Fold this sequence. Notes:
The complex is a heterotetramer, with two copies of chain A and two copies of chain C. By secondary structure, chain A is α/β, with parallel strands linked by helices.
Amino acid sequence: MVHTLNPGVSLRTDVDDVARLLTAEGERIPDPDLDPWVEDIGPSILRSLYRDMVLVRRIDTEGVALQRQGQLGLWAPCLGQEAVQVGTARALRRDDFAFPSYRESGVTFVRGAKPADLVLTWRGEEHSTFDPSEINTAVPQIIIGAQTLHAVGYAMGIQRDGADQVAATYFGDGASSQGDVNEAMIFASSFGAPVVFVCSNNQYAISEPVTVQAKFPIAGRAPGFGIPSMRVDGNDVLASLAAMRWALEHARRGDGPAFIEAVTYRMGPHTTSDDPTRYRDADEVALWRERDPIARVEAYLRGRGEFDDEFAQQVAADADALGADVRSACLTATSREPIGVFDGVYAGPHSGLDEQRAQFAAYLEGFAGEVGR
Amino acid sequence: MVHTLNPGVSLRTDVDDVARLLTAEGERIPDPDLDPWVEDIGPSILRSLYRDMVLVRRIDTEGVALQRQGQLGLWAPCLGQEAVQVGTARALRRDDFAFPSYRESGVTFVRGAKPADLVLTWRGEEHSTFDPSEINTAVPQIIIGAQTLHAVGYAMGIQRDGADQVAATYFGDGASSQGDVNEAMIFASSFGAPVVFVCSNNQYAISEPVTVQAKFPIAGRAPGFGIPSMRVDGNDVLASLAAMRWALEHARRGDGPAFIEAVTYRMGPHTTSDDPTRYRDADEVALWRERDPIARVEAYLRGRGEFDDEFAQQVAADADALGADVRSACLTATSREPIGVFDGVYAGPHSGLDEQRAQFAAYLEGFAGEVGR
Amino acid sequence: MTVMTMAKALNDGLRTAMRDDDRVLLMGEDIGRLGGVFRITDGLLDEFGAARVIDTPLAESGIMGTAVGLAYRGYRPVVEIQFDGFVYPAFDQIVCQVAKLHYRSRGNVRMPLTIRIPWAGGIGAAEHHSESPEAYFVHTSGLRVVAVSNPQDASLCLRQAIACDDPVVFFEPKRLYHAKGEVDPTIDLADAPPMGLARVAREGTDVTILTYGAQVVTALDAATAAEDEGISLEVIDLRSLSPVDYRTVTASVRKTGRVVVTHEAAREAGVGAELIASVTERCFNYLEAAPVRVTGHDIPYPPAKLERYHLPDLDRIMDAVDRVLDRPNSLSGVSA
Amino acid sequence: MTVMTMAKALNDGLRTAMRDDDRVLLMGEDIGRLGGVFRITDGLLDEFGAARVIDTPLAESGIMGTAVGLAYRGYRPVVEIQFDGFVYPAFDQIVCQVAKLHYRSRGNVRMPLTIRIPWAGGIGAAEHHSESPEAYFVHTSGLRVVAVSNPQDASLCLRQAIACDDPVVFFEPKRLYHAKGEVDPTIDLADAPPMGLARVAREGTDVTILTYGAQVVTALDAATAAEDEGISLEVIDLRSLSPVDYRTVTASVRKTGRVVVTHEAAREAGVGAELIASVTERCFNYLEAAPVRVTGHDIPYPPAKLERYHLPDLDRIMDAVDRVLDRPNSLSGVSA
Lengths: 373, 373, 336, 336
Ligand SMILES: Cc1ncc(C[n+]2csc(CCOP(=O)(O)OP(=O)(O)O)c2C)c(N)n1
Ligand SMILES: Cc1ncc(C[n+]2csc(CCOP(=O)(O)OP(=O)(O)O)c2C)c(N)n1
Ligand SMILES: [Mg+2]
Ligand SMILES: [Mg+2]
């Protein structure tokens, strides 16, 4: 029969209706789909995933602190979302290309962003700092969902180059409502483009709970477009890594796009300008605190005797060092010269703007000479 | 398990993978999902559906002819798509509201459009003629997919009025790729709006076969958004009616949106400007000629002794009369006065445009007085 | 009369409009429990309920398109676009549907939408949060465009925009949200002057400054500074950018003979171009000097730390004043 | 030199660009087997294959957004928007991404996109098929905007646009697609004058007509008509709308002292406003009369049967010429 009323799709949005390998208590549970993808992951890699998550959290703490101190204009915390960011980004090959959103500091960090790259944009010094081609990561995107199409186009370029790279794009639960994200799935499917969609469903789009965007799991949309998808525990770094490996391999071997919905939680405010107490209960936050992505890895490793205080201290020290670097990159930043606002608008000469620039330069110069008016 | 790799969805795009009640040969076959919706449909209603389809086809023939004769600027034939248009539109209640595209002359006709309404827009006299509130049908839409959102908004209005009407929106297979159509499904689902989506998959978006838009059935997308859907034979007027009744009833009783993909075929060119021989084979067209929506109803009724030549002649005569009316509405049309280009831009006074209008009126007046320059 | 911030005046205006007409409803992202990221809809969900204060999915085209459908059904949707830079996904629905449906339907379908846009720069925001897209809408026939500069206008013009049977794009300068002013929130719309008359914000005799939105404040500051130098600036707050109240504008220009236009938006084909072209057409014989524009540069909005070199400030306005007065200390100038 | 239609010249230009650089690829709706609804890409699928001539799903934002991604990867996408009125769904990607990525990435990411738009009216088309959206793009910093008026420019400017490292919005007047002209399709880009110099299409001494696209032809007709009346019009074909070649423009205006601007697009905040504002700023002391605009009305594009009352024709141009020359037979005029 041909109806697609589709009883096969799980219509629950329950946050526990996810694929998982590490429980909140740090217990390793089996999952037939994910297990094959993490057979090689032993304690040492897990420790390094733990370390990355702690570093990302430290960056985040520093970002919030710097903003509070007036050193950054804004910060979008990723507190609580370290597992999906680190797990999926670590699964990428260096020559794959990531298209993150503003909240993915964990992704850009894993990709190789330097301390300055993590804060100068939020400080308002530059719209972006790093050269995308150096760390194979796009300028983080603020226009919700726009980057998903860029990733698909990039993946179409990979196809044309006959390469075996993959483009990966990150976006939120809110973004899933944008036309662009749906068009991205359609283009990806039609062209069989090697792209992986990672939807970090952190339960909120600013104040709007995910139920405003979707009555059913977001992962359930992809198959309709012909894209296989997986819904995983985004607070489980191992599951995130496994799912991403599955998705990347699917795309890399020429089977086209794949989709991951990582169920997680935004522990902090939307940004430092936001006041989440206006729209969500402390209880809910407390519940999710129990599901911390870092604690469970520690618990698991400790349980197996693979984690001791010395290691924890070492990581904490590394994190402090990184935090200090981030802070110093922020505090030692210098702003462009005023005339620098004109830099980089066009790649080539432009009679109109060049004239405007010259006039403004003359104005600034004359003005500098004046003592008051 | 939580993966939605979703083996439940039929991944075939085969045009015969549809729900059907009348075969191309005019055989009535059972369908457990559709049958309950057409229990009351006896020969007399079937004859009237037949009649409507013949009339719609006659309008279409007249439109093409008028265009060939230079009386219309353009015409978008619906030849071959009469069943889905008549079947679904006849299922609507008068106080439901339809949001058609440019190709749905069959829908606007069934809704109550007058002969002039069917041609004056294509003649270039007016962007639209009828008053939407009189026939509960929106201005037909040219911007691909835009009307689907209007239908959802209208349906949200119905909800707010506590009414039991339904909004129905029509669009093509090509349109299914537009962000707007996907956003429409999302809004409809989130708000549980009483709206029915009717996708007339006529296999082509101008020259592009549907496989450019979708590797898998378009109906398979709706469930991902939480919208039940059905894929029916769009050349089967009975199945189209049945599916539409199912969808309307679903929406009307407060269960939210429903989606129909009607698999049909655009027998003619995209518009009279198009040359389909550039992109499709005569064989394919011939194949679909065998699936004619009108012939099968006649065959079915004849087989049951419910259709005779007298009836056929009567309908043909009615069609000729309608065709003549359409032709005469076209040929007797008068154009607005030149100054009429300014009519209806704003609902209230507008100092800028009023001044421009006055100036142009003065210009026209003075100019009329001049003999040459 | 009460003293209140522009944010409060807008909130109040929405409440009044919703009380006056139960077909008015609000749509947007985060406008419900949160009350909008700028709190302009604060408390309205509680008073009017979720059927009239609608938190929508995150899709601007979807918001605008469903608002069109609600208008088809007889509603008067007031849409909040969260920030100026996020209006573009809705551009197609605005340009092809909202602006055209009345014309296209020969007046049968009204589009009494109000599109509220927290607008423009100067607040140190992230990319895409400081845009000045007004010229796009001014150039779009079928729309009306309003930009306010003080709490009283915010209150009254918003109510007028909502009551207007045509679509209105309504710009709210973010950097003035917390500026205070006297407001009479009870003005009877039937008695009020029509929406969109320009306002002589300060009378003067030497130079006319045409401006709108937050730049009105900067221009008034410039006028104060100019006074010290013995120059008298007349500052006109346009309030309506489409249509422009040329009666007020030309009266001023005929008096002063000199014009400076200032806005934050880029210069090229901006609203300033229209103002200068129109003023030149209408007042050519009164002009003593070429009108001058003081605008944002023709660059994408720069990073926050640099925005003060982009936004036309008091000094740049004064420099232009010097130029139209042909005073030697003008630093800028136009090449051939 | 060969005589060919503009359609053929464009087709030829695309072929040359694709042969010259294998990173150039075409994207759009129906551009493959059909060769585009105007046949501009005719035969290119056969020559270059489906990897370089890409029939896309029907979604303009999708086309533009994936083109951005391809540019990230080092490709040079040439996007065809099927008709002028269908560019708006892509507006967000154009304004926020295509126009800004170079600036935003401090020059690290280039966006060498060419956005081809079959453009404007006069062909009796259905709604949304006769739009003149150029001002939106001229106002958008970070874009370049070109509009051609003859086969030679179509051929050369298109190749230059594709070779340009910045995004170019390229307007092709539909009603001239079948107009013929001499073309040298082999011009070496290295030797060619830079894209976007204005062209004196006809020399004259009394009035400067500034125009572009299909209006160039109308303006030239007007110049012929004017000659009979002893009036000498200089017609300037701008070719580049952003940036505008003001050297050529001001040289002409300083000579004639009188300016008429004509375009099909609506007047309010259109390109004509920018031209008049800039000319007034640059040539104030040379102007003998207020510059005048002859444009489409500030209305949505009307139904086909009425378009001739909307499009500025020879008579309306002549009327404006009379006005700037202060001849008594001018019928229009500007109120206060
Ligand atoms: C096109 C667009 N509309 C609105 C916004 C304002 N905005 C910024 S973040 C955000 C919520 C995004 O939610 P989600 O996609 O779930 O990502 P999250 O912030 O939770 O990581 C909104 C509405 C925007 N940046 N872009
Ligand atoms: C936004 C937009 N883009 C492009 C077009 C040009 N166009 C008109 S019809 C059409 C194909 C539509 O195909 P489909 O949705 O399948 O409907 P059909 O014509 O087959 O009924 C296209 C590309 C348009 N009208 N609107
Ligand atoms: Mg979220
Ligand atoms: Mg179709």
